[in-house]
């Protein structure tokens, strides 16, 4: 169905939000009130979606996220199915809170473990959850013991921009391979916390200068909307190509192509979890009609 409507023949990566449920209530979480929704993928539903994407769109990789994906009892079996049966590259986005025991059980099936952090301990624990910084460091340590490659993600806000370089240095020291920086978008909980929004572009100028001066070895990837030179240059129309880099399913099966549309109910396609097929529901406000650009990430 996606090919018929858009011409897209290959989709590189599928992000599957296994459930909305989370043990955190982060101040910037794009899910907002949806964190209380009970919708979740069963093993059969998620495995069928992965199989469909692999067969019809030549899928290469999957990222399991949530909510908190380690709260899904199906995560270990889905990782094994994705990796061993479908031959996909597997990634997880987690808050990394008290997951060291679970990690041991599924380590061979994880290609990359991404842990979200929002700065050093004080800023992180204020934005995310008390004790979450120390827990994330323990998770990195355990992952290293298990031979799992790790990365971190951070959403740059007015409350933590100064922490980016010291956090990157600390992660580098601990063998974390990459720090990926996101731009805060005012959806979900972030809409209720305008104080987190960066309003002065000088903040990004200073950030990029500090990164350049720090001479870090850790790979740094950033949403181009953070770039002081961006001024909208980070937005570009969906590339005219038959290959889509990513698509994301929420726990209800709604499929979103642009990161900038995630959390906004701007989907044009839905995976029907009961019938196991993708449906097209065009509307005046969907991401295709509105030509919502995707987020562009580049090396800093
Ligand atoms: S940002 Fe992630 S860890 Fe925080 S509440 Fe949202 S889903 Fe949970």
UniProtKB/TrEMBL annotation:
It holds the Pfam family Radical_SAM. Residues 6-222 form the Radical SAM core domain. It comes from the Bacteria. The keyword Nucleotide-binding does not apply. Coiled coil: none annotated. Keywords: Iron, Iron-sulfur, Metal-binding, S-adenosyl-L-methionine. This is Radical SAM protein.
